[in-house]
Design brief:
The complex is a heterodimer of chains A (99) and B (641).
Chain A: H1 3-23, H2 27-52, H3 56-86
Helix pairs in contact in A: 1-2, 2-3
Chain B: E1 15-16, H1 25-41, H2 50-73, E2 81-92, E3 95-103, H3 105-128, H4 135-154, H5 158-176, H6 183-214, H7 219-226, H8 231-249, H9 256-260, H10 266-275, H11 278-287, H12 289-293, H13 296-319, H14 323-343, H15 349-376, H16 394-408, H17 414-429, H18 431-456, H19 473-494, H20 498-507, H21 518-540, H22 554-560, H23 565-610, H24 618-640
Parallel strand pairs in B: 1-2
Antiparallel strand pairs in B: 2-3
Classes of the chains: A mainly alpha (99), B mainly alpha (641).
């Protein structure tokens, strides 16, 4: 297992997340896609850390997890509120904030 | 001609700190100022007694001035100058200006005239303004006027004089526009203010020039250095001071405000024309005598302005039918005499002030007399509807007759003593000035007799709704006192050369030595005066048309229109000014506003297009973020390779 393999896996996961975020309407799924992209980048960080033999990438991965955890809290709260008011979890539904 | 050995062409006076009664110089100004402050700040509560207070305070100043006069008489004539330093006012760098008051023979003459005639006008106004709802305000402004004028003549430096100068302008604005509900009065007040500003500009630049040249603005210090200064500097300062004097004293070419100023209540006209305001210009020239004595060119211009104005005013007086406008024209003309005399140098200053004092008495007398007539004629002022008033208003008739004889210069009335001297002094300078002054005297006799005949003599031409009656004593007593003064002030002041000896230490004096004998000049003047008076009497004692004739000579048409003074101002200053402002407004609207508006609308248009990107769909935002990130990634790769 070389670093290239990890990076390739990370790229595949990130692309899956990105495409999922663009093409799915369900807010929960979009949310999961965002998590997928974050974790793909975590994988890349850790792989590079291992390759260089230092801890910086690992530390960054921890930071990403903390941010992701905070984001989950806020994001899920927003999704719940939107679902309560609109009876729908579609991300296209709340589009009032526009020109 | 005998020459008085004591007579000196230059001032010899010295100034000392005050003692005794002279420590209260400031009270002279403070009294009327307190009156104005009380009446203005306590409002309607003073309605019932305010006018009595406002009348008592100038009388108090007058009594104090009399005491100071007696105090000065007790001193030798060279020691009659007092300067009271009150407080430091401005000190910036090497510029200092103090609030200091100065009493000498010249100042005190003015103070006595202002407070004396001013007090009589106040008393008269109690009766004249009896039914006016704003009487309290009127008296407040009158007091303000007197206070400002006193500050003007008592200041010991040019800067403080300027404060009084502007105060006089403000008070005249308030009083001319006192009946501001009449559009004509509001316009007249504005006009007086604007025209005066032109003169004020001259004074302010003159003060700057004086400071630059002499490093000080205090009178004694400036005048001590004036002799060493170059003639060019003095000429410029003199011409600027003359511009200032033209504005305040309604001299050509800044005369146009004076005739419109008749829109104010009649006591205001009396105050402006006799005691305050228009005399300020003559005071300024007489006070600045060391500057003018060193600038012969400026003096020549002063004489020319005076001569032009005295003829100009007299011609306007010939054609007017409103009694107050004739008197206004005569004021212009008489002030022209004073300015002419003041331009003659040491031979004329004394006579300018002498004529100013006499004029103060007889002009106040005639204005108040005209007010008395108008008061009983329901404020009509068209002389064509007067006539034959002598039988119903005896006191007004007799006192007005005294003023009429005085202004014509019939001996022994006051105008004779001063005007004759001015004509003699004018002949000493040049034939042109002398002849202008002499012919002016003849025209004066004609238009004043015309006024007098049309108003008091001849047949009654009254409108049906008037029932003339003599005015109450509160109005006639000032008239009687001023009538006596019109009769007596001339020979009392000329007695044994009293006025020359009194003023000579301040303004200097030389006996005029005209090229033709003085009795010839006096005789010729008197003959002209009698000729003018007889001609006017013959013409106007019989039928006077009730409306002004329309088929008249071009000169009459011109005189009715104030010799096109207003037309000239409108054509040369007002219209081009309006065109300029209109062009500037157009330029502002089109180019400056255009640029600003174009920038705004361009920004708005751009944002209108850009905001379409804000679709509200979070997925499209995500796509744009992704695209951006991808572009960055590609850009990095391109840079790397």
């Amino acid at each position: 297992m070389t670093t290239d393999h990890y990076i390739a896996l990370s790229a595949i996961l990130f692309s899956l997340g990105a495409f999922g975020m663009l093409f799915r309407r369900n807010a929960i799924v979009v949310f999961m896609c965002v998590e997928l992209m974050l974790n793909a980048s975590n994988l890349a960080f850790v792989a590079f850390a291992r390759m260089h033999g230092n801890l910086e990438g690992q530390v960054f991965a921890f930071f990403t997890m903390v941010v992701a955890a905070a984001e989950v809290v806020v994001g899920l709260a927003i999704i719940v509120v939107i679902f309560r008011t609109r009876r729908s979890a579609s991300v296209d539904e709340p589009s009032l904030l526009r020109f | 001609m005998t020459t008085d050995l004591l007579a000196s062409a230059t001032p010899t006076i010295t100034y000392a700190p005050p003692e005794g009664v002279f420590t209260y110089i400031w009270v002279l100004i403070a009294l009327p100022l307190i009156g104005a402050a009380v009446l203005l700040s306590f409002g309607r509560r003073t309605d019932s007694w305010g006018h009595y207070l406002a009348t008592a305070l100038p009388i108090g100043s007058f009594i104090l001035a009399i005491m100071m006069w007696l105090g000065l008489l007790a001193r030798p004539s060279e020691d009659r100058g007092i300067i009271q330093h009150l407080w430091d006012w401005v000190f910036v760098g090497n510029f200092t200006a103090n609030v200091g008051l100065q009493i000498d023979q010249l100042s005190l003459t003015f103070v006595l005239l202002i407070t004396g005639v001013g007090s009589l006008i106040h008393i008269y106004s109690i009766g004249y303004m009896k039914d006016d709802p704003k009487r309290r305000l009127f008296f407040a402004y009158l007091n303000l006027f007197v206070a400002a004028m006193l500050l003007l003549v008592l200041a010991d430096n040019y800067l403080l004089l300027y404060v009084g100068w502007e105060g006089v302008g403000l008070a005249s604005y308030l009083l001319i526009g006192f009946w501001q509900y009449k559009p004509s009065a509001a316009v007249a007040a504005k006009k007086a203010f604007v025209v005066n500003r032109v003169g004020d500009f001259g004074l302010s630049v003159a003060i700057m020039a004086i400071f630059v040249s002499f490093g000080t603005v205090t009178f004694p210090e400036v005048f001590a250095q004036a002799g060493e200064s170059s003639e060019g500097t003095l000429t410029w300062i003199g011409l600027l001071l003359l511009l200032a004097a033209c504005g305040k004293s309604a001299q050509f070419p800044l005369q146009s405000w004076l005739l419109d100023a008749m829109e104010g209540p009649t006591p205001v006209s009396a105050l402006i024309h006799a005691a305050t305001m228009v005399t300020a210009g003559v005071y300024l020239i007489a006070r600045s005598n060391p500057i003018f004595d060193g600038a012969p060119t400026a003096q020549t211009v002063v004489i020319a302005i005076g001569a032009i104005t005295l003829i100009f005013g007299a011609i306007i007086g010939l054609a007017k039918d409103e009694i107050k406008k004739v008197l206004a024209g005569s004021t212009m003309s008489q002030i022209g005499y004073m300015v002419l005399a003041a331009g003659l140098g040491p031979i004329g200053y004394v006579f300018a002030i002498f004529h100013l004092v006499n004029h103060g008495f007889f002009k106040a007398n005639m204005f108040l007399g005209a007010g008395s007539v108008m008061h009983s004629f329901n404020n009509q002022e068209n002389m064509r509807r007067f006539g034959g008033i002598r039988t119903v208003m005896v006191v007004t008739y007799i006192t007005f007759a005294a003023g009429w004889l005085a202004i014509m210069g019939v001996p022994p009335f006051s105008g004779f003593y001063s005007k004759d001297k001015i004509i003699e002094a004018a002949f000493d300078h040049s034939w042109a000035a002398g002849l202008a002054a002499m012919i002016g005297a003849g025209i004066t006799a004609f238009y004043m007799t015309r006024l007098f005949t049309m108003t008091f003599l001849g047949k009654k031409r009254w409108t049906d709704d008037v029932h003339p009656h003599e005015s109450p004593p509160v109005m006639t007593i000032p008239l009687i006192l001023l009538g006596i003064a019109s009769l007596a002030s001339g020979f009392l002041l000329a007695w044994n050369g009293a006025i020359e000896k009194w003023l000579e230490p301040v303004v200097g004096f030389q006996h005029p030595e005209p090229p033709i004998p003085i009795p010839v000049i006096s005789g010729a003047t008197l003959a002209l005066v009698i000729l003018g008076a007889v001609l006017a009497y013959q013409q106007y004692r019989r039928e006077v048309p009730l409306t002004a004739p329309t088929s008249v000579s071009p000169l009459t048409v011109a005189a009715r229109k104030d010799l096109y003074g207003d037309a000239f101002n409108e054509a040369v200053f007002m219209r081009p000014g309006q065109y300029l402002t209109r062009a500037l407004v157009w330029f502002d609207n089109r180019s400056i506003d255009g640029a600003v508006v174009a920038m705004g609308s361009a920004t708005a248009g751009l944002s209108n297009r850009l905001r379409k990107w804000q679709t509200g769909y979070s997925r499209s935002y995500a796509l744009s973020m992704l695209a951006g990130a991808f572009l960055l990634f590609v850009a990095l790769l391109v840079v790397r390779l």
